[in-house]
Every structure is written in C-alpha cells, then in structure tokens.
Amino acid sequence: MNWFLSLNPILQGLLATLFTWSITALGASVVFFFKDVKKSILNSMLGFGAGVMIAASFWSLLSPAIDLCDDLGYNSWLIPSLGFILGGFFIVLSDKFLDKFTFKDLKVEDGIRFKSYKKSILLVLAVTLHNIPEGLAVGVAFGGAALGIPGCTVASAILLAIGIGLQNFPEGAAVSLPLRREGFPVVKSFFYGQASGLVEPIAGVLGVFMAIA
Which of 153, 179, 198, 160 is nearest to 46 (CA)? Predict the structure, then answer.
C-alpha cells in the first residue's frame, strides 16, 4: 500500500481505473463459458445488470454529483438533473439515428432482427458512455486527495474504485452475452464487452488533470 501512496496522483488514477476496466473485461469473459446463450439466461443477466447499473447510477454518479455541487456552493439538484436529462435525450436520439440504417446482411423481413441488433448496439453505447463519468469520478477523487480537499482521501478514492470495479463485472457480461446471442463470434463478443470499459482509464487520467489543474 505504501508504494501506491507514494505514486503521483495521475498514476494512482490510472492504476485505479485500469483495475475497474479489468473487472469489466472479467465480466465480459463470462461469454467464453456459454456455447449457446439461452434467452432465459440472457434475460436474467440483463435484469441483474440493470439492477446493478441503476444502483450504481445513483450511488456512484448522481449522489456524488449532488454532494459535489453542495460543496462548491452550486444548486444541488439543477446541474445533476440537467446532466441526467441530457443523457436520456442522447440515448433517444441515438435510437432515432440507428433507425436511419439498415443491415442488408440481416435479411430482415419484419424488422424483428434489426430491432434486436439495435437494442444490442444501444446497450453497448449506453454502457460505454456511462463508464466515462465513472472514470472521471475516480480520477477526481485521487486529484482531490492530492490537493488535500476535506473529505477526499486516497483511502476513499480506492474504495470508490473498488465499488465501481465490482459493479463493472455484470456490465461486461451484459454487453458480451447479448452480442453473442445475436450471432457475434465469442472472441468478438468479448472484445466489445471489455472495450466498453476502456474509456475508464482515459477518463480517470483526465479526471485527475481536471482536479489538480
């Protein structure tokens, strides 16, 4: 632990978010254990992932945003609410944007398979996008600890990274398993699943820079 405490906060943020990404990859690797992804298994995994993501959306993102606004003297509900609404609109617009495309190789007669593909794409997009503020949150936590901001410690930043990492496991599975069911090869399904978490190390380093700049 001492070696970690002695590191530059940028390296601390990078290592912490590399950990959160590795747990995403571990969750995505679940796809290797399924030769065929049955609908009942997929529905169970998606339901579990949805529950974890809803909880994480509040406790890891909205609640810290509200607390941070309070600490900085901003309106505690306006900015988080605005970000929440904009995020929802982005997914709706993405849904409309995907309607403009057709996949000729899908042999879509009634649109059912296209809708299924579209849901998988939106899921990958949503998980990837929500990993950006998670990485930023971890980076800002380490940056705040380096600046000695009250309430910000390396220990609390590490706990935040562990918490985000644990909830990344079902997220990785929630991306790779639907893709596998849609006919993607196992390796490609895993690749996209782990790739959804690759934005976290980038956002983590950026978060540290933003905090200490």
Answer: 179
